[in-house]
Predict the structure.
Amino acid sequence: MRTRPLTDLTSRELRPLLDEEAAFWRRELYWDYTDVASAVAAGLDRRTLTGRVAQEGSEPVAYCYYMVDNLRAIVGSLYARDGFRGLGLEEQLLEAVLPEAQAHAGSERVECQTLFSTAPQADSRFVRAGFSARRRHYLVRDLSLPVSATSAGFRLRPFRREDIPLAARLIHRSHEGSLDAALNLTYSTPVSCRGFVETLVLRSGCGRFDTEASLIADGGDGALGVVLASDLSATSGHLCQVSVSPEFQGRGLGRLLVTEALSAFQRRGLATASLSVTLDNRRAYELYEQLGFGLRREFTAHAWVRPPARIELPA
């Protein structure tokens, strides 16, 4: 078994591993990963991805990559094919990739969410490398179960493209001082939040954007709440973002946004709905449990910043 720089390979050489990975995440997460696999292949051909690959002979059996965007390195998939998991290959690759990402001249920060990881000991490698971390859960709900109607006295309307600035400001305000904002640069500024919303809505950054299940509560002077949804596959919907203005939290608006989005998924005949949530966000977690979501996969959000800067995690 040997490891090599990912850039030594062509997308054609990596394609069998990418295809197996896409099938694996579809089974595990109900997520059609083929578009992501194609993006990885395209990034490899453009030489915009950096990482390592493990090979048995000439056959790639595990890989890990990162990409740099806006002074942030994001570690992506950490995957080993069937028969090669649990042997330490993914951890070996991660131990090579993390120092590279931390030393990259274009990066002041490194982040990773290990949802797409088959490495059982990944967390310990991030700890050794000085990362801060919190646990997250990927939750799934069976849409054959009824959705309880709710009325919170708010009026919702479909999300439109022109709502992107409204949604970005709301998402930023709702995350100020939060644990998620400390670990994910996406939520740190209004500009980064706008880029996040544009990626979801305009560039299918988390599956195909679902115009029917994406809703906004517009208060006239600004958005009171928003849910942004996507289709991860032909049968699975995903709640990419649920945010409520701080002044209106605890008044039933979050429940209304989620139940209306689930109802929209049901009207289209989808079988499952999913979302991700940080365990320390107890109010949101308890709401999702009440609405019938259950644990499908546990993972971790990791973040590191170049010293002397520090990540300050709220208590």
